Amino acid sequence: MSDCLFCKIIAGEIQSKKIYEDNEMLAFYDINPMAPVHFLVIPKKHINNLLELKEEDASLIGRLFHKAQELAKKEGCEEKGGRFVINAKKDGGQTVDHLHIHFLGGRTLGWPPG
Ligand code: 5GP
Ligand code: ZN
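^ Those are the sequences you sent over. The predicted structure of the assembly is below.
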């Protein structure tokens, strides 16, 4: 989508600190980290949010999570863990309407969310 921030990052029109890229996904550090380790994993295919996920893209989400856990380990979070989050729409606090997995680690996170 031409007016989507994350599509622009995928296209290289907006710079990001990339961690991983292949033909179907991109991982990069969050510009406003909420934890010592905070990166995003996004599909290159524009999907608005998890509530609009089609069955045909279900396995893609699995691969995104698998890559997220691989990168979380590389970032040193295997022992203590962290949080894999997908915010969806207004009540979920989604601010960028392009599906993304957050990984947050490197500190103990509170629960429940505020
Ligand atoms: P959401 O609130 O939609 O779940 O998460 C969107 C995330 O994207 C936020 O954590 C925000 O800091 C991050 N973000 C917004 N704009 C940019 C950007 O231009 N570059 C990067 N790397 N992250 C961004
Ligand atoms: Zn997009």
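The helical segments are 5-11, 58-74, 89-92. The two ends are 31 Å apart (CA to CA).

Shout if you want it in another format.
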